[in-house]
Amino acid sequence: MNPSLKLVARNLHLSACRIVIIAPLLIITASVACASESADDDGIVVEVVVEGLTSPRGLALDQDGNLLIAETGGGRLLKVTRDRDVRSLTTTRLPHALNSGPDAAYTAGPSAISLLNGEVFVIVGEFRGNKSARLYRITGETGYEAVTPVTDAFSPTENRFSNPYDIVNAPEVDGWIVSDPGGNSLLAVDLDGNIHDYVVFQSFTIPDHEAPVEMVPTGIARGADGAVYVGSLTGFPYPREQAVVWRVEDLNGDGDAMDEGEVEPFVTGLTTVTDITFGADGTLYIAEFSSDTKAVLQGGDFSKNAASNPGRVLRWNGSELTVFADNVVSPTGLLATESTLYISEEYAGRVSKRPLN
Ligand SMILES: [Ca+2]
Ligand SMILES: [Ca+2]
Q: Of 141, 236, 293, 350, which sits with the fewest C-beta atoms within 10 Å of its C-beta?
């Protein structure tokens, strides 16, 4: 068991300054579909699906095979049809902000998408002022309604969303499991919107750095074995090779994964993980945010910083970690189909895709 993980911090004290993911202040006007192709260094054909977005992040496929994109800074859920038509699912924008977080330098808004029982649900994260940090249901072309109540990030264990980030459907809790980087937790949310702690990750220490480093769980996915998997960004100073993909399973069926052996490291030696997704063959794809996350988040123009310090997508086949895509700009959303890996490059404002083989 990795000593960095200590569970059941039920009285978790939230620190005041918890940097999560983000985006540029640049407001780029709307969506432009295009089909430009290029080849990366390894000869993989890279195709830009959509560009000109304001912080695209969470990705999903709807029942008709259309790509859905959570545009964090634009407050929109975008649908990209097979013929590359791009439209917003709602005429009303979801809650979003371009001036959240420390120094008002980060975006908050739609972060992740769930399709359940024929409906579309969306997680909205919000660093500053938690009243928008909620799970919403898309009700039709005009808008949306909240599933979860206004939450209190400082609530002891119930009903708290701090900065929810990613979501996976979870019949074992009669709803969803949501990652909350702001609370270093996974939260169980039932269909009525009740929230309770599912996992709480404790901070860990590294040499030559006095303050504990937070775990900061981010991208979440369901494995073919039924377990839930979640990556960790890790907090400042974003130490290299200290991020982990965790395997999470409620073995004793008591409604959370806070008991012994219920959270185990699955892939270690990673750096600033922002999302994970499983391919049809069980291969796990892992997004690492940047080669130097500290440099990206130090201030200034995040888009430029991210382009100068790109991240990458790794591939874990069960025994070996290899690089699938290098030079990917601030990847924060992954989606694998039978034949394609889609990547949200958040600060670059685009979603790209690459063939799987
Ligand atoms: Ca995700
Ligand atoms: Ca349990």
A: 141
